[in-house]
Amino acid sequence: AGTLLRLSVGDSSPVQPQWVPHSATATTGRGLMLIAALSRAYGVEVQADGSGKVVWCEIDVDSTADDAAAAEAALAAQWASVVDELARPALPQNEESEATTHLQLLNYPVRLGVRMREHRETVLRELQLLSLNHKIDDVDTAAAAEDIRQILDTLYGHLTSAEARNLQALAAGLDHVDLSYARRPDHQQLIDRWRRCMSALEQVSARGDLSHLATPVDIQVLEQWIADELSRQLAGARPLPWRSVDSPMHGADLDEFSR
Fold first, then answer.
1. How far is residue 14 from each of residues 44, 48, 55, 72, 205, measured CA to CA in Å?
2. Which of 119, 124, 129, 141 could disulfide-pair with 152, CB 3.0 to 4.6 Å?
3. What is the pLDDT of residues 220-230, one digit of tens each?
4. Coil, strand or helix: which one is 56?
5. Whole-angstrom Cα distance, residue 233 to residue 228?
6. Global pTM value
7. For 183-205, b where at least 16 C-beta lie within 10 A, e where not — what string?
8. How far is it, in rounded angstroms, from Cα 253 to Cα 222?
């Protein structure tokens, strides 16, 4: 038997890791697949009080070239299995009778939506690293960054049914998909909190050393549309579909964000 090296990493979230397909340029989302492919054994231990979890793995220190080839094959097989699962028939649309209890994002741009999630995951990871290393010396900036980290961790710590549907559409090669969200009593408060979070993020990213956290303009336009569209529907308006950022509707938004 070879020598095994056991590694473990803990965090404050009790949510279990989940495989999610990402684009080729994503900077996050491949950790669990790498662990599964490169280790002899791995697992997750959630704290009994729900205060966090520990992800662990055991790696063979005496690995060979054959082991590396096997790991590469395992990675390819795991990626294929995730895509196959997401390629199952898309979740059914809500019936018309449910329209009063659900909010809808019609003609949602699949790839831009995936990019938005990936960017937010990247921001969350960077803020976690900055927090752990105490790299933000300004007290106000550090406090704002922590608020942003907390809301991003809440929103992107798990895969919602709407995001799963968007990933199904990505796996199926679709450009657009209709998404549905269950209406919540505190929905408008959540939207308002999200707006404040995104405004704070842009202020934080204005610092020269944090400029890599800035949100691309087209993603800003999508996020503003999502917040505006959900707010409209909460006020009783009928859903309106997304239009391309090249359309007249969103062209003005692009100009505004570019200034």
1. 10, 9, 11, 30, 28
2. 124
3. 999 999 999 99
4. strand
5. 9
6. 0.63
7. eeeebeeebeebeebbebbeebb
8. 10
